[in-house]
Design a protein that fits this description.
2 domains, five-stranded parallel beta sheet, 8 helices, Arc Repressor Mutant, subunit A, alpha/beta, Rossmann fold
Length: about 230
């Protein structure tokens, strides 16, 4: 089985070298770029399995790179942000990043997240249609095999993480899950991560499946407990 290919987009040469060294030690096939324009070129040529993307880049910002690549690719994107810039983290998630890490970060945690994201990406690879039955609840249908979702027979445009979250909630309709449980079950993180990423993806799902997203009736918040899908 070929090694997973990871694109690192980082203009800090010391951090780039550190990431390259540690990922190569883990037997990943590493490619790199030092600015936004080069990132687009390398991503299109190399088609990486995962992208580690810094926000502050020359030429094009990480936001612009993420926005463009999310329209062209479905692989996971992990954004790197400054510790104090909370708004950057939220914007990154809203334009299509699957998760983020704040600098400085633990290399051990980064590697754990990469493994989890790649594992989840492999699980969403389309399978033969007779191996997985669609999930249904009322007017929602999740075609797991083809990785497609429909609401009232109209196809929903979902990011890979949105799809995984919706499929999980449909499969477990009526059960309440805490943010930490969703991080473990959907994102695959078996440690305490930042739950903000869960809230952002829930909000985006509501925009797509609720009649009135500001007053959700389907994907509801259970105060003090978490989220559940009512139907």
């Amino acid at each position: 089985m070929p090694a997973s290919k990871i694109l690192i987009v980082e203009d800090d040469q010391n951090l780039l070298a550190t990431l390259n060294y540690n990922l190569s030690r883990e037997s990943y096939d590493v490619v790199q770029a030092v600015d936004g324009a080069e990132a687009l070129k390398v991503a299109r040529q190399e088609k990486p399995d995962l992208i580690i993307l810094d926000i502050m880049l020359p030429e094009l910002s990480g936001f612009e790179v993420c926005r463009i690549l999310r329209k062209e690719m479905t692989g996971p994107i992990l954004m790197l942000t400054a510790k104090t810039e909370e708004m950057d983290r939220i914007v990154g998630l809203e334009i299509g990043a699957d998760d983020y890490m704040t600098k400085p970060f633990s290399m051990r945690e980064l590697l754990a997240r990469i493994r989890a994201m790649l594992r989840r990406a492999e699980m969403t690879t389309p399978q033969p249609v007779d191996e997985q039955q669609p999930l249904r609840t009322n007017d929602l249908e999740i075609d797991v095999a083809r990785h497609r979702a429909f609401l009232r027979n109209s196809e929903l445009e979902l990011s890979p993480t949105e799809f995984d979250l919706l499929a999980f909630l449909v499969k477990n309709k009526g059960f309440v899950f805490s943010r930490e449980q969703l991080l473990e079950k959907v994102w695959g993180y078996d440690y305490a991560g930042d739950t903000r990423t869960v809230d952002v993806h829930v909000r985006w799902l509501r925009e797509k499946i609720e009649v009135n997203p500001s007053n959700p009736k389907r994907l509801v918040t259970v105060r003090g407990a978490g989220y559940k899908l009512e139907g």
